[in-house]
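Hallway conversation turned thread

IA: we were arguing at lunch whether anyone had actually written out Isoprenylcysteine carboxylmethyltransferase family protein end to end. Turns out nobody had. So, for the record, here is the sequence (149 residues) and right after it the structure tokens. Reply here if something looks off.
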Amino acid sequence: MKLPKPGKDYFYVGVQIILFVVYVLPISLAKISYPEWLRYSGFFILGLGLILGAVALLQLNTNLSPFPTPVANGKLITNGAFAIARHPIYTAVVFSGVGYAIYQVSLFKLLITLLLLVLFYYKSIYEEKLLIEKFPAYTDYKKRTRRFI
């Protein structure tokens, strides 16, 4: 049985989608330059983000949802990627966004990633209230694991 999604769920996911779309637009704010090694360090950060995200997605399996409201028959996961961060997918998206922005030498993409980080911060606060209601053990998990890396 699917639970109806509150308006906040749709708001957060809608803003997230808009920011994802804006991120891929070919917009340049200013010409900046930095050493080639720094550019390629962005590629490394992107890779770390992709690996963390893939591991978290595999762990979530049927618990996966773009919405902050936990799925009806979901289980609390606290190991693997979720032992590193309470929100490893958000962390992975931010790492990937920063890494790609550095690699592409894009101040615009860096700015959009910063906006995504702010969105994920508030979305995670809302999500954690719901997780505490559904999983009383989440309170202890929250004390020992950081929100993001």
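OS: looked through it. The two ends are 34 Å apart (CA to CA).
IA: good, adding that to the notes. The domain at 34-144 is CATH 1.20.120.1630 (Four Helix Bundle (Hemerythrin (Met), subunit A)).
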